[in-house]
Amino acid sequence: MTVAADRDAIPAPSTQPFADGRPVEFWPTALIRDALETGDITVWQRIVVAIKRDPYGRTARQVEEVLEHSRPYGISKALSEVLIRARNHLEANERAEAARHVRLLLDRSGLTVQEFSSRIGVAQADLSTYLDATVSPPASLMIRMRRLSDRFAKMRAQRASGGE
Questions:
Q1: Is residue 120 part of a domain?
Q2: Which residue stretches belong to region Disordered (predicted)?
């Protein structure tokens, strides 16, 4: 056998286990670990996409577990940063969504910011932090806001229709 034949007989490193077609979200933790330790940029990108899609999902938790027990050279710091940024982005989007909902309830009630905050039992400054998406209100406060908004929207509708 020639040297060239020997070289051809030795399989080149491959990402084949990672390219089996299954979405990253269905990979076992052992495969995630192998991908972080021996994969290449295309495999890592698939993992990053899965983390960004669901920052608290299965893949994100698996990556956390792998990073907690071992530090794959080079990629560990980058993936830790991806986890942090993806979660911060998700939380900012959730605060913005909550702020839109609070604004909708406030507008629907027909009350001023001062009246609305007083009737839900929070300082006007606190309501402002909910409206500008700095802070998300607790679920119990969201329920209180919805009930207040429902009550005042109903009263406004009755007045508009000439009913009681």
A1: yes
A2: 1-21
